[in-house]
Design brief:
By secondary structure, this protein is of the alpha+beta class. The chain is built from two helices and five strands; from the N terminus they run H-E-E-E-E-E-H. The protein is globular and about 35 Å long. The N and C termini lie far apart (46 Å).
Length: 93
């Protein structure tokens, strides 16, 4: 029963575990809320956020960056992996 609940939680994006990034990733994730993580660069500066959410075809990850002039977060895109979401933060300005 526990295995089924865990699998169901992972499939719906309600699992609270931090997404694993590839071994070569320079960034790290820090919990910031329910299914939300700050993305920190190697020096510890926040470069954006990654949010996990449920999609009919599986779990997706949304990359967000704070835009100071508008005082709002801007979505950079939705991705099938946390690595891709982090890469979009790494390479966007």
């Amino acid at each position: 029963m526990t295995m089924q609940l865990t699998a169901a939680a992972a499939a719906t994006g309600t699992d609270q575990s931090v997404p694993r990034l590839s071994a070569g990733a320079r960034e790290r994730l820090q919990p910031a809320g329910h299914d939300l993580w700050r993305v920190l660069d190697p020096s510890g500066h926040v470069i954006g956020h990654v949010q996990r959410f449920s999609h009919p075809l599986g779990v997706r990850f949304r990359a967000k960056r704070y835009h100071s002039p508008s005082t709002r977060f801007r979505d950079l895109g939705e991705f099938w992996s946390a690595d891709d979401a982090v890469a979009s933060l790494r390479y966007s300005s």
